[in-house]
């Protein structure tokens, strides 16, 4: 399979959109099955990163993997791609129709290098209004409505002034809609600062999930976040080039010993064509077919696994 070429179908432009109004687009989690809480199904960061591999848009390959996930018990995927990351609402609606996986779409602004050119012209309320419209009205003229404010991010070791504007706007959008907030931390930095900032803007920790907490030895951040009542995502599972899964399991064991596993959620953060199984990557099923067996071997029980993959997401994303 040619990862770098354009031979595979790359969008849903030629697919009928007439069915979209018939697709179930509510923002509720199907609590009967597992939820991947931080994934990308259509994302395009190829321009910024200078690589076509960073344009994840191969519909048939992605649909096949989602169908397989359904057989493994996955019922929901929280899709973290927002407006300026290459989001494609029609593509997501097609996937829901063809795979029966419920997709929770996102609204927000990513982090500083990915803000649009006109960002400086936007006030905090205008940014919030954009988010609220995508939650209450729909995304890009489709029936798809956002169900989470995400992924809003911070830079490596800092939250820039513009990123703080997004966090302030996210707080306003949360207060107006009740949608939870899920964040991006660059290489697991600034998680505690993100929580402090959102709390200062009036968001309760129970509505905040701090993302990418598993990219380094990070218990000095993870435990205080959990003790403060926030949610923590181990959502880069399988990205062993950043941090080994054995380290992720060791951190999860310590979290479990602290009795805080009921605020932890899991995912893989697939973003590239090369991450797909048909292109030689781990594939979306890695979490269930490789990592979960590793957890069981390390002494976790099925109840704890169900808690992190099914029960915790159902609580965090419950309709409010």
UniProtKB/TrEMBL annotation:
Q: What is this protein called?
A: Phosphotriesterase-related protein
Keyword vocabulary terms for this entry: Hydrolase, Metal-binding
Q: Where does the UniProt annotation place the signal sequence?
A: none
> Which SUPFAM superfamilies has this protein been placed in?
Metallo-dependent hydrolases
Enumerate the CDD domains for this protein: PTE
Entries under InterPro entries matching the protein: Metal_Hydrolase (IPR032466), Phosphotriesterase (IPR001559)
Gene3D superfamilies according to UniProt: Metal-dependent hydrolases
Q: Which Pfam families match?
A: PTE
By sequence similarity, the record places it as follows: Belongs to the metallo-dependent hydrolases superfamily. Phosphotriesterase family.
């Amino acid at each position: 399979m040619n990862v770098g070429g354009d031979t595979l179908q790359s969008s849903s432009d030629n697919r009928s959109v007439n069915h979209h109004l018939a697709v179930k687009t509510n923002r509720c989690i199907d609590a009967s099955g597992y939820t991947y809480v931080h994934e990308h199904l259509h994302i395009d960061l190829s321009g910024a990163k200078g690589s076509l591999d960073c344009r994840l848009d191969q519909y048939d390959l992605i649909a096949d993997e989602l169908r397989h996930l359904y057989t493994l018990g996955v019922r929901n995927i929280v899709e973290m791609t927002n407006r300026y990351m290459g989001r494609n609402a029609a593509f997501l609606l097609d996937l829901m129709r063809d795979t029966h996986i419920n997709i929770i779409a996102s609204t927000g602004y990513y982090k500083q290098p990915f803000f649009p050119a006109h960002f400086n012209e936007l006030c905090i309320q205008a940014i919030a209004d954009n988010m609220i419209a995508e939650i209450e009205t729909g995304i890009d003229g489709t029936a798809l409505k956002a169900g989470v404010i995400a992924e809003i991010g911070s830079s490596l070791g800092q939250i820039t002034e513009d990123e703080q504007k997004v966090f302030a706007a996210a707080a306003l959008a949360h207060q107006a809609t009740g949608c939870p907030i899920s964040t991006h931390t660059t290489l697991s930095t600034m998680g505690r600062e993100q929580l402090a900032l959102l709390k200062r803007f009036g968001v309760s920790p129970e509505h905040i999930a701090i993302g990418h907490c598993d990219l380094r030895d990070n218990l000095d951040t993870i435990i205080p976040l959990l003790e403060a009542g926030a949610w923590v995502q181990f959502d880069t599972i399988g990205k062993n080039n950043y941090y080994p899964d054995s380290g992720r399991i060791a951190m999860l064991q310590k979290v479990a010993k602290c009795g805080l596993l009921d605020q932890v959620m899991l995912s893989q953060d697939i973003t590239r064509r090369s991450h797909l199984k048909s292109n030689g990557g781990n594939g979306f099923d890695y979490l269930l077919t490789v990592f979960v067996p590793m957890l069981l071997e390390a002494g976790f029980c099925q109840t704890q696994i169900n808690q992190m993959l099914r029960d915790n997401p159902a609580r965090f994303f419950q309709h409010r």
